[in-house]
């Protein structure tokens, strides 16, 4: 009987070798996926504090993150997530042109789907390095905040981004939060009764993080809470990772090309200044080269190392005094998992870091057929709803023990 069964199995294999091999490979892959890829996130935050209790109360922090089975490699996560999110229609914002004290200007793009009065919460979104209000991940956050948290949203398009003319030879950098500070002052004056939560993605998260560490307790008069998505806490380690030969370096060069093109479009603003050599800037092949030849000089740093040192959040996260949740994937090529400041968060009463083993950079795809509403978006939704629902507690108790 056994011999007959073995003979039949062997005959089936001979007739369908590819099917048999593919099935075995799929089974092994799924077993590996179930044992080593799927897992609950890890929360790093000082225990017995109001912030820890708030974040720990979110249902999603106790659920498994199940990355898309056929796409959990970090670079693929980021690229495929970007492609899927592009199916989200563009949003018709109301643009407010905001002028800074130095004469520069940016576009603040507003969206709200219902008006609930003067106390309606505001979600301020800071995009990534070359992002804008129409970036795919930004549109998802705007829709989530408006639909699920009933908030009004405003997207801070950095100088030179979002289709608005650049007024001076100054764009933006991760270490300088002067522009963000002026915008928050503007929101406080214009909407004094509205609680504000700021959300920074990637470079926008570094800028927001530096504002929080620079301002300390003073930031609490402008912000109720903050969230950082795929932020690079250690700019040195992140840069080192992104210069690794292979897919990381290819992604790095893609970003550098976008940065170069953004300056070429407004080169007339930079031609009369001898601080930099535009030909060298335009030949930049990596983000570090671009930052060394332009960004660092633009903001008065002696070198790109000094600039990255100033932008580096690792080591100063305990200076954050506003309730802040960061979401990071340990396989993020922009922020290697071993340099996430877990110990700093474990000592902090104001910073909670939620980490997943997989997710890539601004990826966090899940489900067999991803629909554009991913894990990080659900964390964002639950967090801001909890903050707005418990705003008095957040104001009064975050920073202390319950």
General description of the model:
This protein is α/β, with parallel strands linked by helices and 402 residues long. 43% of the residues lie in helices and 12% in strands. It is built from 15 helices and nine strands. It has helices at residues 2-15, 17-37, 50-56, 74-85, 136-148, 178-190, 203-215, 235-242, 247-264, 278-282, 287-298, 304-311, 342-347, 375-389, 391-397, and strands spanning 42-44, 94-99, 105-111, 122-126, 152-156, 196-201, 225-229, 323-329, 351-356. Helix 5 (136-148) links the parallel strand 4 and strand 5. It is globular and about 90 Å long. It starts with a helix and ends in a 5-residue tail after the last helix.
Question: What's the short story on this structure?
Answer:
The protein is α/β, with parallel strands linked by helices and 402 residues long.
Task: Output the keywords.
alpha/beta, globular
């Amino acid at each position: 009987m056994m011999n007959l069964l073995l003979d039949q199995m062997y005959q089936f294999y001979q007739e369908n070798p590819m099917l048999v091999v593919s099935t075995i490979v799929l089974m092994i892959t799924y077993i590996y996926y179930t044992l080593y890829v799927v897992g609950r996130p890890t929360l790093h935050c000082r225990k017995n504090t109001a912030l820890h209790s708030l974040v720990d109360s979110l249902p999603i922090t106790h659920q498994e993150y199940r990355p898309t089975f056929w796409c959990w490699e970090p670079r693929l996560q980021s690229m495929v997530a970007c492609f899927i999110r592009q199916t989200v229609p563009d949003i018709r914002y109301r643009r407010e042109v905001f002028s800074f004290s130095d004469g520069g200007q940016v576009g603040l793009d507003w969206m709200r789907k219902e008006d609930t009065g003067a106390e309606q919460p505001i979600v301020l979104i800071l995009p990534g390095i070359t992002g804008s209000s129409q970036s795919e991940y930004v549109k998802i956050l705007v829709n989530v905040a408006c639909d699920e948290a009933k908030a009004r949203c405003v997207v801070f398009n950095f100088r030179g981004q979002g289709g608005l003319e650049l007024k001076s030879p100054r764009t933006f950098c991760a270490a300088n939060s002067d522009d963000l500070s002026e915008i928050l002052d503007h929101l406080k004056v214009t909407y004094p009764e509205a609680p504000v939560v700021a959300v920074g993605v990637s470079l926008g998260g570094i800028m927001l993080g530096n504002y929080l560490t620079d301002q300390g307790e003073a930031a609490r008069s402008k912000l109720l809470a903050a969230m950082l998505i795929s932020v690079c806490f250690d700019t040195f380690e992140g840069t080192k990772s992104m210069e690794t030969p292979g897919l990381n370096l290819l992604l790095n060069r893609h970003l550098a090309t976008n940065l170069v093109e953004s300056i070429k479009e407004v080169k007339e603003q930079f031609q009369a200044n001898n601080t930099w050599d535009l030909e060298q800037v335009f030949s930049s092949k990596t983000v570090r080269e671009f930052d060394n030849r332009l960004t660092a000089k633009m903001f008065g740093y002696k070198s790109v190392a000094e600039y990255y040192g100033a932008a580096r959040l690792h080591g100063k996260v305990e200076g954050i005094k506003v309730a802040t949740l960061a979401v990071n994937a340990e396989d993020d090529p922009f922020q290697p998992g071993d340099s996430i400041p877990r110990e700093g968060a474990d000592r902090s009463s104001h910073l909670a870091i939620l980490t997943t083993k997989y997710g890539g950079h601004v990826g966090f795809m899940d489900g067999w057929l991803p629909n554009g509403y991913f894990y990080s978006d659900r964390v964002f939704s639950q967090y801001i709803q909890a903050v707005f629902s418990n705003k008095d507690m957040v104001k009064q108790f975050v920073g202390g023990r319950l």
